[in-house]
Amino acid sequence: MFKVIFRVTTEVRNTAGLREIKRAGFIPFMAKREGEEEVYEALYKSNDLEELREAITEAAYFLNKVNRKGSNNFATIYKVNDNYVGKGLGGLLGASLGLKLGGIPGLFIGAIGGLLLGEILDVELNETFVGVYSWPISIEQ
Fold first, then answer.
1. DSSP assignment, residue 70?
2. Cα gap 123→90, rounded to integer Å
3. Mind listing the pLDDT tens digit for each residue in 9-21?
4. For the chain, which has fewer Cβ within 10 Å, the N-terminal or C-terminal residue?
5. What does the alpha-carbon distance between residue 133 and residue 74 come to, in Å, rounded to a whole number?
6. What is the rounded radius of gyration, in angstroms, for the C-alpha atoms of the chain?
């Protein structure tokens, strides 16, 4: 699994960029805007680097259609090791707190929340830097 951080510039303020990242096959989990720059963090559920490069090019094509442009640091890629420690501990902790605070419904809600938090912790703690890709020149036309 890979985590990709996309950086694009645009004058328009809407969610079209997020929609195009999803359309390219990524699972976005964070989007923010810093002035004219939009930053998207997304997961890609494959361990094949060539397939990821094709998906990044496809994302650049879709983003270009909605007036987003990238630069030299368009896509920063991290390899994420699949671990279940965070999900297991998060689910267990969430379920036990939910049961203690909210009974049986709290057990289910706490377990789901703990699993989601555990997944985010697994992604953030088990990543290694792969590289930075620039905006594809062929799309600049």
1. -
2. 13
3. 998 888 888 999 9
4. C
5. 6
6. 18
